[in-house]
TrEMBL record, chains A, B:
Gene3D superfamilies: 3.30.420.40, Winged helix-like DNA-binding domain superfamily/Winged helix DNA-binding domain. Belongs to the ROK (NagC/XylR) family. InterPro entries: ATPase_NBD, ROK, WH-like_DNA-bd_sf, WH_DNA-bd_sf. It comes from the Bacteria. It comes from Streptomyces fuscichromogenes. This is MarR family transcriptional regulator. SUPFAM superfamilies: Actin-like ATPase domain, Winged helix' DNA-binding domain. The lineage of its organism: Bacteria, Bacillati, Actinomycetota, Actinomycetes, Kitasatosporales.
Length: 382, 382
DNA sequence: GGGGGTTACTTTTGCTGCGGAAGAATCTTG
DNA sequence: CAAGATTCTTCCGCAGCAAAAGTAACCCCC
C-alpha cells in the first residue's frame, strides 16, 4: 500500500485536525486553522490522492437541512490501517489492535514468564503475528514500558524488568519487519489522551494516574513536557501529609504511600492482618468498616490536596485522573472535594476534573497512539 | 517624532529580539529566528529607517578580534523614548522613568492621601508632568494596580483602593494626552521579568513574590497564563502546614500566614509582645534569638516546600523569587534547601532558582514594561 | 603592502504558498 | 424555474522566503 508521507507542515496540521476531531468540511477546517478556503482545496487534494483522507458525505452534520451547497466532510478511513500497541508489565504483556483513530478493535494478553530481552521480543513478535493475522494492513507497532526510554527505540533503564540499554525497537523490528516505536508508558498514555482523549485541543492539560505507582504528565501548548524523573516514578517525594503512613514504597506521607494500590493494601494488611484486594478494600470502606474507611478516607483527602496543588500551580484547563486506582474517587469523592475546597481560593475557577477508569489495555492503546503519531504524521507533537 | 508602527510579524519578532537581548548582528538574528541572512537584510532595513533600530558598531562583542568582516550589531536607541511606570499602593504612588530597554533612569514617589479616582488621576498627571519635564519624548504610561484590571484600561475591582470599575486609563489619558496602559501589578511584574529579566527567552517560567502578600505568575511558551484568582491575592489557601500558625491574613498554615511580611511581624508580635520591623526580625533570627528564629525557620521551610511543589508540578526552567520579603532566603536559605530536598525526587533536575530583592520601583518598572509591550510592539506577548 | 583566507552583509533570482476574487456546483426557498 | 445561499474550485498576484552569487571589510602572513 502506498505510504503517505512526507507532509508539509500545513498538510500535517490539516491531517491531524481531521484525524483528531473527526470528519470536518473544508470550510470548517479553514476556519479552525486560520487559512483561506482556497488553501484548503490545495492542501486537501494531495491528502485525498494519497488516501489518507476521503470525502465522507455520510458523516458530519447528518440531515441538518441547510441552504446552499452541502459541505463535503473529510475524514480518515479509520480502518484502512491498523496499529498494534503493547504494554509490558512485570508479568504480563497486554496488546491491542487499534484503528487509525485509535479505537481499540481487538485485544490479546499473554503472561510474561521471563525478562530476557530476546524472549520478550520473541513474545511480542508472536503476539504481533497472531493479531496481524486477524487484522491486516498493520502499519506499525507501539510499545509502552515503565522506565526510561530513549529516541523512541532503546529502553535505557527499566528497574522492574532489570533492563539497561535494551534496543527493544530494533529487536521487534527484526522479527516482524514492521516499524516499531517504544516509549515510556506514562508518556504514551499522556500523548494518547492529548490527541484522542480528554485533552483534545487543550492548551494546558494534566494527566494524573493512580495504580501500582503514580504517574504525572503535563501538556502545555499541546506538547507534553518531558522531565527527568518521569521514568523513575513520580510521587515518591510528593509529601502530602508529613504525619501520614509509612509504607515500603514511598516516603512517609507521600503520594505514593497514600494513594497507590500496593500501599493501600499494605496499610490495610498491616492494620488488620488480612490480605485484601483493592476492590475489597474499597467495598469495605463504602460499607464503613473502620480500618478500610480510615485508609481510604486518608487517601481521598490526599488526592484532593494533590489535585488542588496541581490546579493552583499549573492552572490546567483540565485534569484527567486515570489508572487502575481511580475507584477511589467513587468511594471517597466527598473527601476529595472537601480537600479541594480547603486548598483552593474560593474565587478560583473550579477544577475541570475527568475521571477515567482505565485498565492495562488503555496503556497499550497509548503506545499505539504513539505509533500513529510517529509513523503516520512524522513524530511531531501538536 | 515619527511613530514606528505598524510592524509585520517577522519585523516584530526581529524588533523584540533586539530589544530584549540587546545588540545583535544580522547573522546572529538570522540564526536565532531561523531565517536566512537575506531576509534579515530585508527585515531590518525598514526598522532602521524608521529609527527603531540603529547600527551600533561600538556594541556587541567588543574587541574580540576574529577574522573576517566584523559584524554590525543592531541595537535600539534605548534613550530615544522614555516610558513612565507607576505602582499605586495603599498610601504611596511610586513612579519611574525607563528607557526603551526598561532601564530605570529616574524615580519619583508621592504619598497618596486619598483614594478618590479623580484625585489619584490628578496626582498621576502631576507626577507625569514633573517626570516628563526632565525626560522628554515620553511615549506612554503604564500603571500597576493590585486588583482586577480589564482590557489594559479599567480597574474592575481593587479592594485596598475600594475601587469598582474605575476607567483609570481614560482618566489619566485625558489629563496627560499620553497613551496609558493599566494592568494588575503582579501581571506587570511577571511580564517585565519575562521580557527583560530572569525569564528572558524561557519557555516555562514561574515568578513567586513575597511581600505584603503572595504573588504568583506562570509563563508558558513565553506567554503569561491569566487566571481568575490572581487579582484577589494568591496563597491564602495554599496550605503548606495544617498545624502552622493562624494569622489574621490567611488560613492556618497557608503560604500567606507563613511567608508574608505582615504575618511574620504579627507572629513575632504575638509571641514577644514587641513590634519589630521585618529587617529587625531577620537580623534577630540570624542572631539566633529563639522566637524570631522559630518564625523565620518555619517560613523558610514553608518556602522550600512551596518551591518544591511548584517545581514538581510545573517543571519550570526557572523560578524567580522576588518581592520585599525575599531577605528570608539569606537568613533561612538552609531550611529552604533542606525542604526542597525532601520534597523532590533525588533524580529530578535541580531547581533553577533566582532571587531578586525588589522594591516598589521594580513594580513600577513592570508597569512601564507593559506600556512598552503594548505601545511599541502592538500588545502581543511572546 | 598586497595577496589569500575568512566572515558579514547585500543583491538577485526564482519559487512556494498564501489570500482574494471570481466562478462553478449544489442545495433550499419561493 | 428563478433567486438566494453556501461550499468548493480555479486562477491570479504577491509577500516573503531560501539559495546563490556578488561585494565589503577585516584578518594574517609572506
Amino acid at each position: 500500500m502506498t505510504d503517505w508521507l512526507p507532509l508539509s507542515p500545513a498538510e500535517r496540521s490539516v491531517a491531524i485536525e481531521v484525524l483528531v476531531h473527526g470528519p470536518l468540511s473544508r470550510t470548517e477546517l479553514a476556519r479552525r486553522l486560520n487559512l483561506s478556503q482556497g488553501s484548503l482545496t490545495r492542501l486537501t487534494k494531495p491528502l485525498i490522492e494519497s488516501g489518507l483522507l476521503v470525502e465522507a458525505p455520510w458523516a458530519g452534520a447528518p440531515a441538518e437541512a441547510r441552504q446552499g451547497r452541502p459541505s463535503q466532510p473529510l475524514g480518515v478511513v479509520a480502518e484502512s490501517r491498523s496499529f498494534l500497541g503493547f504494554k509490558i508489565t512485570d508479568e504480563m504483556v497486554y496488546g491491542v489492535v487499534t484503528s487509525l483513530r485509535s479505537d481499540i478493535v481487538a485485544r490479546l494478553d499473554r503472561p510474561l514468564t521471563g525478562h530476557d530481552p530476546e524472549y520478550v521480543a520473541d513474545l511480542l513478535a508472536a503476539m504481533t503475528a497472531e493479531l496481524a493475522g486477524r487484522h491486516p494492513a498493520v502499519a506499525g507497532i507501539g510499545i509502552g514500558v515503565g522506565g526510561f526510554v530513549r529516541e523512541y527505540a532503546v529502553v535505557g533503564e527499566s528497574p522492574y524488568l532489570s533492563w539497561r540499554d535494551v534496543p527493544l525497537a530494533g529487536l521487534v523490528r527484526e522479527r516482524t519487519g514492521l516499524p516499531v516505536v517504544v516509549e515510556n508508558d506514562v508518556a504514551a498514555l499522556v500523548e494518547a489522551e492529548t490527541w484522542f482523549g480528554a485533552g483534545r485541543g487543550l492548551d494546558r492539560f494534566v494527566v494524573l494516574t493512580i495504580g501500582a505507582g503514580i504517574g504525572y504528565g503535563l501538556v502545555l501548548g499541546g506538547r507534553r513536557v518531558p522531565c527527568a524523573e518521569e521514568d523513575r516514578g513520580f510521587g515518591r517525594h510528593w509529601i502530602i501529609d508529613p504525619q501520614g503512613p509509612l509504607t515500603p514504597q514511598g516516603e512517609r506521607g507521600s503520594a505514593v504511600s497514600l494513594l497507590t494500590i500496593p500501599s493501600i493494601r499494605y496499610q490495610v494488611r498491616a492494620a488488620t492482618g488480612r490480605d485484601a484486594s483493592y476492590e475489597e478494600i474499597l467495598a469495605a470502606a463504602a460499607a464503613r468498616e473502620p480500618m478500610a474507611a480510615r485508609v481510604i478516607g486518608e487517601a481521598g483527602r490526599a488526592l484532593g490536596t494533590l489535585l488542588a496543588q496541581i490546579a493552583n500551580f499549573v492552572m490546567p484547563q483540565k485534569i484527567l485522573l486515570a489508572g487502575e486506582g481511580v475507584g477511589l474517587m467513587e468511594v471517597a469523592g466527598d473527601a476529595v472535594r472537601d480537600m479541594i475546597r480547603t486548598h483552593r481560593h474560593p474565587l478560583a475557577a473550579p477544577i475541570n476534573l475527568e475521571t477515567k477508569v482505565s485498565d492495562f489495555h488503555d496503556w497499550a492503546r497509548g503506545a499505539a497512539v504513539l505509533a500513529i503519531q510517529v509513523l503516520v504524521l512524522g513524530r511531531t507533537g501538536g
